[in-house]
Amino acid sequence: MNGAHITPKKGVRSGFIKPDSELKGLLHRIYTEGNDSDESGIHGDGFSNDDTCCERVQRTLLTAPVRGIPVYVMLPLDTVWLAETEEGILSDSNQLKSVLMRENGIEVGLEMLRASGVEGVMVDVWWGIAEHQGPGLYDFSAYRRLFEKVASKGLKVQAVMSFHAAGGNVGDTCTIPLPPWVYDAAEMDPDIFYTDADGYRNPEYISLGCDEEPCLFGRSPVQAYSDFITAFVDEFHSLMGETITEITVGLGPAGELRYPSYPEGDGRWRFPGVGQFQCFDKYMLERLQHAATEYGRPEWGHGGPHDAGHYNSREWETGFFRNDFGSFETEYGKFFLKWYSEELIQHADRILGRAKDILSQPGRPRAIQAVQEAPDGGNLYVFEPSAKLSVKLAGVHWWFKSRAHAAELTAGYYNTRERDGYSEIFKMLAKHSVGVSFTCVEMRDCEHPREGLCSPEGLLNQVLAAAAKYNVSVAGENALQRYDDYAFDKITESAFGQSAMAGRMDRLTFLRMGDMMVDNWDAFAAFIKRLTCPPDHW
């Protein structure tokens, strides 16, 4: 697969194709009209006041209290791309180099974000682009050009170490594979990819089962990820802490800490299916067999549950997840789910430990964490890495109102009605001083079909409670691009509103800069004002 193409996703409009002249015209209007917009009656793409039962919700125009929260905006997935360096067919990855796409459009877009009061941007640093030429051969030149433009606008950067492939998730408008040499390794050892009970291998992210196996031409995946982060931090040493303020470490599909249990991109899964366990590659099976033998039940080590249904099953159609006497509550079920979820937590622990060590090496930029009084009465300064670490957690909210929480279980979160599956994750994150980005902050329970037993609001509250328990910083993300009043109201409520967990959201990352944002600019700009400015500063 040495010539794996990076192409726009067929049938999906590219996310950012507005002509430069239109963008410049909007920027001119922003400065000449002062961003004035009507706070009510703005209903952007995707939803309206009449779409759901939310039309019965009493609107309360919540705004930032005395202090607002920082807002970051995700840049288009294809902000940095691969282009040919010479004429010919894309048959050799060495003919490609990374380039910054639509430089003029990106620059105008960054200025628009700055003018609206946005704090910074989040950008994917794609493994499949920056290390495409071969193991240990890095090309960050296009990212340097981008970061310099961001810095010139006075904006900050959240850099996502994207060790996954793009194209298989909701909102993906292009296809970006893993580095070609990873697929070469997979041809020799197909088990490096997650595998389901039917033998299908998912090439979106390398299986955690081989985290420490030398399956990538002598390096383990954890070593490859560590080398990539090291190369990135070395390359952008001078920008750490000033422009690059956060590094988000990708830990699974879509960059999220989870298993690829609901692969929508190839049509195998459709909402609200329960998904499937991903533990059938040889490396995961070896680890399961070892755990089962240690537990004293070696017969449990031959695979996942046999009665868990398929990707699109409903809970009541399975023996494992059903409410009454579901086998998820048996001794075997508890053993398997504990093992499956702990493997995911240990995966994050291994990689985040390496990342923390990299940022803490001598000579790396530091920031003052605290000032303490020394025994002699002087000041004792405690330092930390100038760029913070974070991870992404998935908002798997369907089946949340059931006993089993089936979709969370297959994704690797051992969370049920009787068991808190998030505390152990946040305990591990707190050990490494790592923050969390969490999706679905724009969603209400009433917007989803009843059959899916969805509760994005209940899930968010549980996650915020776990974060508060371990003092972990939380950034909210919207799962879908929405510009309607009810989505904006819900995000604002999640940040500042009337619930017991209000105020636990430290920042917002908004999905995403592109044509849809430009088309709904007035609504977006008014929303940013609500989040970042107290009413007496309007």
In short, what is this structure?
By secondary structure, this protein is α/β, with parallel strands linked by helices. It has helices spanning 20-33, 103-116, 127-130, 141-152, 180-188, 221-235, 282-295, 331-359, 406-411, 423-431, 456-470, 485-496, 515-519, 521-532; strands at 7-8, 71-74, 80-84, 96-100, 120-126, 156-162, 174-175, 193-195, 201-206, 244-249, 366-373, 379-385, 388-393, 434-438, 474-477, 505-510. Helix 6 runs parallel beside helix 8, helix 10 packs across helix 11 and helix 12 packs parallel to helix 14 (521-532).
Can you characterise this structure?
The chain is 32% helix and 15% strand. It has 538 residues and is of the alpha/beta class. Helix 8 (331-359) runs parallel beside helix 10 (423-431). Residues 1-13, 35-59 and 87-92 have low confidence and may be disordered.
**Number of DSSP helices?**
14
List segments where confidence is low: pLDDT < 50 over at least 5 consecutive residues. Answer: 1-13, 35-59, 87-92
Helicity, as a percent range: 25-40%
Please state the CA-atom Rg, rounded to the nearest Å: 23 Å
Give the ordered list of helices and strands: EHEEEHEHHEEHEEHEHHEEEHHEHEHEHH
Tell me, what's the shape? globular
Mean pLDDT: 87
Largest β sheet strand count, sense and barrel closure: 8 strands, parallel, barrel
What are the SSEs and their pairings?
Layout: E1 7-8, H1 20-33, E2 71-74, E3 80-84, E4 96-100, H2 103-116, E5 120-126, H3 127-130, H4 141-152, E6 156-162, E7 174-175, H5 180-188, E8 193-195, E9 201-206, H6 221-235, E10 244-249, H7 282-295, H8 331-359, E11 366-373, E12 379-385, E13 388-393, H9 406-411, H10 423-431, E14 434-438, H11 456-470, E15 474-477, H12 485-496, E16 505-510, H13 515-519, H14 521-532
